Each structure stands twice: as C-alpha cells, then as structure tokens.
C-alpha cells in the first residue's frame, strides 16, 4: 500500500489517502467475490455433511439426518445461507465446525504453525538452492556441469512427491535410521526447549526436502534460462568492457536482472504453499492445514472449508503485495502506476 | 472350568458375584503393571464421545473411555461389563441389571443406575440412530436403587441383551449432560466416561493421549499407564510404524491387505483376525432391484454365479476373509448353511441370462451397467475392477464410476444407482444387523444403510418380524433358517465375502483381543508382558 515513496506535498497526501482507500475497497470486494464463489463451488459438490456422517457411522435414520442438516443450517433457503455466510465474512467470523465441535478459527490456529514451518522451510530451501543451482547452470551453459544440473532438476520435477517421500523414508529412516519416518515431534517424551527445537528439526527434514524438490526444480530451470538471456544483453558486455570483475558482474548485473521472473513465480506459489501440501502432510503424518482442508472437502464440512478459503484468499492478496514490494526493491523501473 | 466360565455361569444364574470372583477382577498371574501402548487411530475421529459420534475410529478409541453394561465373548454371549449380573423375566419383557459397586466417572463422581437410565432414555434415544432402533422399544426404565436398573419393553425383543456393548450403549454422566444440548455440551471435549482410561491430551492431526483412570472400579486395572493413539494417514507410513516398533498394535484397515503377508513374517508380531465377531462385516454386491435388468431374479442370480468368491478373497483380500453364502454371517449364532448354493459357474450364469432373453449383442455384450465404486479406499477400487472382470465374462459390461463419500452416499441412499458394493455390520443379532437390509418397512429414501436395493417380500417381512420378538431361542433359529432360504433364493444382493481384518499385536502385549468386540474393548486387562 505505502510501497510508493512519494514526495510529501499538499495534494500528494490526499492522493495517497485516496489510493489507499481505493485499494481497501478493492480488497473487500475481492474477498466478498471469492467468498461467494467458494460458497457456490463448495455447495455444488454432491452430498452433504449429514450423508457423510451416515456413511461413516454405518447407521442412519431420518432423525439423525434432519438433526445434522438443521445444525449446519442446510434447512434454510440457499440464498439465506449465502447471505449469512457473507455476513460472517464481513464480521470476520469464521464460523463453527459442528462436526468437530470447535470454532473454525481454533482449528486453523492449531494447524497454522506446523504448516508454515513445513512450507516455509521447503520454500526457502527451494528458492535459495534453485537460484544458486540455476545461476551455476546458466553461466556454465552447455558444459557438462550444466547438463548434470539440468538432468537433476528435470528428475526432481518429474518425480511424484509421495514416491520421493517414501523413498527418503526407506533410505533415511528404515535403512539408516538417521531421521524419524513421520510425525511432527517425538510423542510422549519430556524435553528441554532446545531439545524440542532439535527434535522438530529432525522431523522436519524429510518432509521439507520432499516438498521442496518440485519447486527447487522449477526455480533452477527458470533461473538458468533467465541468466542465459541476461548474459547476452548489451549492458553485460559494457560491464565486461569496463573491466569489472566476473564476480561483481554476476552479483550486481546478471543476478539482479535474472531473478525477476523467479520472484514472480515464487510469489504466486507462496500463496499456494500457505495452504499446506496435502500429499506430503499425508505421507509424513504432518499435522498441517493441507490435511485439514482435504478432510473438510471429503466430509463436506462447509464451515471449515469456507473458513480456510477465506483465510487463504486474504493471505494470497497480502503475499501479492509483498511480492510487488520485493519487485520494486530489485527493479526501480517498476512503479505503482504500471503495477496497478 | 476356568475362572471366566465360572463367572459367566454365576452371572447367567443371576448370582450377584462379589467383586473378587467376577470376571476380569482377578489379577492375572504374571502380568506387569505399567508401561505405554502406542497404536494407530485412522482416520482421526472428529470427537471422542461415542454417544454422539459412531464412526469406526471414535468407537475404537471410545471403548477405552466409555463402558456399557455388558461385554460379549467371541461367541457373542453376554459377559459382565458395568453390570455384574442380569435377569430376564420369562415373558421376555423385563430386564433387570445389577451394577458393580464403586464405579466412578473420570471426574470422580460416582456412576449409578440413574446414569444408566439417563444415558439410555435421554441421550442415546436422541443421538444414536443404531441405539434408537432398539431402545425405542422400551416402555419404561427404572432405577429402584443405585445399583439396579430395570427396563420394561413394550413387547419382547430378543436381541435387547445384545445391545449393551460399549459401541451401542455407552454410559455417560447424567450430572454433566442433564438439561443441556447434548451435542453442543462443552464437556464433550473432555469425554468423561467410566472406562479404565481417560483423555489427557488431544493434539489434532498428531495424536490422542489416554492415561490411567485412577478411580477405576476393577481392582488392579488398568495394567497400562497410558495409551497413545497416533494419527497416521498414509498406509505405507503405518506399515513403517509397525515395522520399526513405533506402534505395537494395529486394527481394522490400518494395514493394507497386500502388506499383511509381509508383516506376518516379522518375528516380534502376532496377527489375529479375531475380535470382529460382534461386527462381522459382511460384504455384498448391491443391485438396485427397481431397475431393469436387476429387477429380474435370474439376472441377480447370474451375477452371483459369475463371481468367483475364492479368487476374490485371494486376489483382493490376500486370503483374508471367508466366502459368504447368504445374508447372515457364519460368525453369528443364527447362520444357516443349507441354502441355495451359488457356485462359481459361467455356464450357469450365461444360461440364466439367455433364459431371461438377455442375448449377447455386438462384441458379446448383453447389457451395460453403471457401478459406483465406494469411497472407502484403494481396496474398493480393486473390488470394482474384480467385479467388472468377472461379470464381463458373461457379457455384463460394467462401467466403474468413482465418487467421494458424500457423492456416493447421496446417490446410493436416494436409489440413483444400478450397482455398487456395500459392507454392513451384523451387530451380534440378525434383528439388529441383518433384517434392516431386506424388510419392506426399512425402504426409506435418503437414508443410508436402510433397505436401499428395494427388495420386498411379505413372507420375508413376516419371518423377520416374528424372529425379532420370539423369546425362544430354538424358535428364532427355525424362523431365521426359513428366512435365509427364501432370501438366498430371491438373491436381492450377491453376498461376497465375510470380511476379516488383521490385528497386528506386539508379542509382548497380553490380553489385547479377548472378546467379540476386540479392539473396541476397554483394554483394562491389557499389559506389556
């Protein structure tokens, strides 16, 4: 919002305030549109929570189905349900999961730390390793080391994540016994805070690695092609002609320009990562948001699902802002005007 | 005669046994006290109150927290639970239960006959569909003194005594639920029962931690200090957990069938399929009897002849289970084996199809049928494929359609299907678990696990009804034998497999599976060594 550095001036201040206000209105409108769409999509799926409960308990009668539907408010007209959903959105009320008998906000808050830890770690690993490897491949384009790196990243990209996860478990947990096979922390052991941090880190290693593989491959390949493209541009030749050291050229000129597409793509993917990663969380029994979302879909737990969608959409919008800010920091040519 | 049989006799004779001789109160020789049991709970239950939620995982775990009046042996005969003895009046209307003294809830408050009456008449009738079916037959429930409960029925109902296991009739505290909205009571989060274990911590998505209930009424129980139920959603990870000794027990579908043979070779584990007698899961090919050609008995019989159950058992379930021959499981007391046999015979199947005029057209296809694959996991997809192959051989072209649970339940319960497979529990008595799928009075649109195929036969209705209210065991047996013969001849469904589920038990564990409800039992007598 205030990413724009403006010279303080009379008219300028008002303009800024108006810009912020316009942005806020847009933000609320986008959230409401998303909320409406997610309501329609969620409700378009066949079946309802009462049917699911009946299917899972192996016994049902009319009374149970009616009770459950009443609890979920499904006995009211569709439009009334949508209106009350939007009202909850505007009052920042995420609702209540009748199925789990807990407020949705509590369910989300429980899962958020584990999710952010896993996806954040995986994302950083993928970003840093991807940029480094991509750059190395780019500046050595055509040589054997480039070929090797390209093959590795292609393999990582093509490997199904659950298979990679299981292979890592077989190697590091079952065969070598170095790392735990699944879980978030060792259960049933009293630990000092430091031990606990270490324990969570060892549990985090394999799932984070599995999750980062695909993203690492994407960033590496993107970085490589971007580096090759930038290297052949005139200003690099100029820099060389000026007699700048190779290291300085790579860091100051090539990287700074080549990294832009990676930032764009990573920014888009960061949003998706906040939602957790269903497959990795399942393989490693990681108590994250991805599994919660997946289960809520299967169980038609509407309040949980809509709550997650809402939080996710807000986070994605915020992350887009952050991406824009990073973009501006790297590339001064980008202005608010062209960004909007 | 061992101690257990003696106690059973005492109980059956209505002798109010003292706390020393009743079954399960004796300190078994050479059992260690203490230790931790790690096992699996999958999928994670939404809540732990079995009175409100009857999903499989809830029942498995809830059996440690909530108890009922009775328990059931492998032969499904009742054994003492919270009740140390019981009596049935000769006319089959009056059931009198005597409770053990000194039973306490996890919050320290005593459990008395008032809690039993409240649980059955106020809570379960309101919240538990399966219990509702039985307990709405009660005319009045009384608690003449703190240790006596008397139920008087409107008319005799033979399986009444089969309805007091911890999954059907869990006893909840009156002082917590009285006058509240049972489903929304905040105390549900704490799940307060009388069982040997109480809830200490539930880290969602990770594990549920149960610890010893110090005030447990059975002397010396529980042996274990604590139980961890770990949520492990991925089947491969569950197998790894078992192999590495992270868990010492698995149940139901924790281990995939294809992994059973491999894990059976592990020296530190024992595998048993016992402990599912009360549920006796029965698997069948479900055909919508309202839709042509399924409305023709000959077509359904042809399907039954076309499926090689033995091959199915071997290929799909890797040898676990038993070929089903009719609507009643051979694991239950009223099984009749002398019924029409549907041996595997493609010729018989084709002859029946020819006879009804369903001739093969282009490419040998007679008819195309849509088959809904149930959403309970990989194995159901395999079943669907097996059935498609089998029926394809006689010219019945099966199109598989996958759905998730909500979609499947919606379609099947509203009769918008042609074929699917279904798995139902027998629940200890045909009147509880079997008749519901065949009697006309239970054809109820929108209700899952009612009589969804739409089979209707007045004679069958009459026999099931008579057998449910008959008080004489021999009479019941005769009625059930008759009805089984008719139903198998009519073949509304094609019964496939009496499913077995593997329990892998660490050899150091004692007394894990000791009754017909197996892993749902209290685990009060389970010990490590």
Automatic annotation (TrEMBL), chain A:
Gene Ontology cellular component terms for the protein in this record: plasma membrane
Keywords: Cell membrane, Membrane, Transmembrane, Transmembrane helix, Transport
Main location: membrane
Organism of provenance: Phreatobacter stygius
Protein name: ABC transporter permease
Span of domain ABC transmembrane type-1: 112-323
Family note: Belongs to the binding-protein-dependent transport system permease family.
Domain of life the protein comes from: Bacteria
Location in the cell: Cell membrane
Keyword Nucleus part of the UniProt annotation: no
Lipid bilayer topology: Multi-pass membrane protein
PROSITE patterns in UniProt: ABC_TM1
PANTHER family the UniProt entry points to: ABC TRANSPORTER PERMEASE PROTEIN, DIPEPTIDE TRANSPORT SYSTEM PERMEASE PROTEIN DPPB-RELATED
Membrane spanning residue stretches: 20-42, 116-139, 151-174, 200-222, 258-284, 304-327
GO BP field: transmembrane transport
UniProtKB/TrEMBL annotation, chain B:
Matching InterPro entries: Peptide/Ni-bd, SBP_5, SBP_5_dom
N-terminal signal peptide: none
Entry's Gene Ontology BP terms: peptide transport
Compartments (UniProt record): Periplasm
Gene Ontology terms for molecular function: peptide transmembrane transporter activity
Gene Ontology cellular-component terms listed: ATP-binding cassette (ABC) transporter complex; outer membrane-bounded periplasmic space
Pfam family, one: SBP_bac_5
Keyword Membrane (UniProt): no
Residues annotated as domain Solute-binding protein family: 77-431
Keywords: Signal
Similarity remark: Belongs to the bacterial solute-binding protein 5 family.
Name the UniProt record assigns to this protein: ABC transporter substrate-binding protein
Naturally occurring in which organism (per UniProt): Phreatobacter stygius
Lineage: Bacteria, Pseudomonadati, Pseudomonadota, Alphaproteobacteria, Hyphomicrobiales
């Amino acid at each position: 919002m205030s990413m724009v550095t403006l010279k303080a001036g009379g008219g300028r201040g008002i303009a800024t305030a108006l810009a912020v206000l316009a942005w806020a209105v847009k933000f609320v409108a986008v959230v409401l549109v998303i909320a409406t769409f997610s309501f329609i999509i969620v409700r378009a799926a066949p079946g309802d929570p009462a049917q699911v409960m009946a299917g899972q308990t192996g016994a049902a009668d009319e009374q149970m189905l009616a009770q459950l539907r009443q609890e979920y408010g499904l006995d009211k007209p569709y439009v009334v349900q949508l209106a009350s959903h939007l009202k909850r959105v505007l009052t920042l009320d995420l609702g209540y999961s009748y199925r789990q008998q807990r407020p949705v906000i509590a369910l989300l808050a429980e899962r958020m730390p584990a999710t952010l830890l896993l996806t954040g770690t995986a994302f950083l690993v993928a970003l840093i390793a991807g940029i480094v490897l991509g750059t190395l491949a780019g500046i050595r384009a055509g040589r054997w080391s480039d070929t090797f790196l390209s093959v590795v990243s292609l393999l990582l990209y093509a490997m199904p994540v659950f298979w990679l996860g299981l292979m890592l478990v077989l190697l590091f947990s079952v065969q070598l016994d170095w790392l735990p096979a699944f879980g978030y922390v060792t259960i049933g052991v009293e630990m000092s805070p430091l031990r606990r941090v270490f324990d969570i880190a060892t549990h985090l290693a394999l799932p984070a690695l599995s999750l980062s593989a695909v993203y690492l491959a994407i960033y590496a390949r993107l970085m490589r092609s971007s580096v090759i493209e930038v290297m052949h541009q005139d200003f690099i030749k100029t820099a060389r002609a000026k007699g700048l050291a190779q290291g300085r050229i790579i860091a100051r000129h090539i990287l700074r320009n080549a990294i832009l597409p990676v930032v764009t793509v990573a920014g888009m993917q960061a949003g998706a990562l906040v939602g957790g990663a269903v497959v990795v969380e399942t393989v490693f029994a990681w108590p994250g948001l991805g599994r919660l979302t997946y289960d809520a879909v299967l169980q038609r737990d509407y309040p949980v699902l809509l709550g997650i969608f809402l939080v996710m959409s807000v986070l994605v919008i915020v992350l887009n802002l952050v991406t824009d800010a990073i973009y501006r920091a790297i590339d001064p040519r980008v202005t608010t005007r062209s960004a909007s | 005669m061992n101690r257990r049989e003696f106690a059973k006799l005492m109980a059956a004779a209505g002798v109010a046994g003292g706390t020393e001789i009743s079954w399960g109160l004796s300190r078994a020789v050479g059992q260690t006290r203490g230790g931790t049991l790690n096992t699996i709970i999958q999928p994670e239950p939404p809540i732990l109150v079995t009175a409100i939620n009857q999903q499989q995982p809830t029942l498995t775990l809830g059996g440690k927290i909530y108890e009922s009046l009775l328990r059931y042996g492998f032969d499904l005969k009742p054994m003492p639970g919270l009740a140390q003895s019981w009596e049935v009046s000769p006319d089959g209307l009056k059931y009198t239960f005597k409770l053990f003294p000194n039973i306490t809830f996890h919050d320290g408050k005593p459990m008395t006959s008032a809690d039993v009456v409240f649980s059955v008449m106020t809570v379960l009738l309101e919240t538990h569909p399966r219990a509702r079916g039985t307990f709405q037959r009660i005319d009045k429930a009384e608690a003449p003194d703190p240790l006596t409960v008397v139920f008087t029925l409107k008319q005799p109902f033979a399986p009444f005594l089969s309805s007091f296991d911890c999954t059907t009739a869990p006893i909840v505290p009156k002082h917590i639920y009285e006058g509240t909205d049972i489903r929304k009571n905040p105390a549900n989060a704490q799940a307060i029962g009388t069982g040997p274990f109480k809830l200490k911590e539930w880290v969602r998505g990770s594990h549920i931690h149960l610890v010893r209930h110090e005030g447990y009424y059975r002397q010396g129980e529980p042996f274990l200090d604590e139980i961890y139920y770990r949520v492990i959603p991925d089947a491969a990870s569950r197998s790894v957990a078992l192999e590495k000794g992270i868990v010492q027990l698995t149940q139901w579908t924790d281990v995939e069938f294809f992994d059973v043979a491999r894990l059976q070779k592990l020296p530190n584990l024992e595998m048993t399929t016992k402990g599912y007698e009360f549920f006796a899961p029965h698997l069948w090919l479900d055909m919508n009897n309202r839709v042509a050609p399924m409305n023709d008995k000959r077509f359904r019989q042809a399907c039954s002849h076309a499926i090689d159950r033995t091959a199915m058992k071997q290929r799909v379930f890797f040898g676990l289970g038993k070929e089903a021959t009719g609507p009643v499981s051979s694991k239950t007391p009223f099984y009749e084996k002398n019924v029409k046999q549907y041996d595997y015979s493609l010729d018989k199947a084709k002859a029946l199809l020819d006879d009804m005029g369903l001739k093969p057209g282009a490419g040998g296809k007679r008819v195309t049928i849509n088959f809904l694959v149930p959403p309970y996991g990989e194995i159901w997809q395999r079943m669907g494929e097996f059935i498609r192959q089998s029926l394809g051989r006689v010219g019945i072209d099966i199109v598989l359609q996958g759905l998730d649970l909500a979609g499947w339940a919606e379609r099947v319960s509203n009769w918008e299907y042609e074929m699917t497979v279904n798995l139902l529990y027998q629940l200890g008595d045909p009147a509880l678990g079997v008749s519901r799928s065949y009697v006309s009075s239970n054809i109820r649109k929108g209700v899952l696990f009612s009589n969804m195929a739409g089979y209707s036969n007045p004679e069958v209705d009459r026999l099931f009804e008579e057998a449910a209210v008959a008080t004489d065991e021999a009479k019941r047996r005769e009625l059930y034998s008759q009805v089984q013969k008719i139903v198998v001849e009519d073949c509304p469904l094609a019964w496939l497999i009496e499913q077995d589920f593997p329990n892998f038990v660490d050899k150091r564990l004692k007394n894990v599976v000791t009754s017909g409800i197996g892993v749902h039992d209290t685990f009060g007598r389970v010990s490590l060594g």
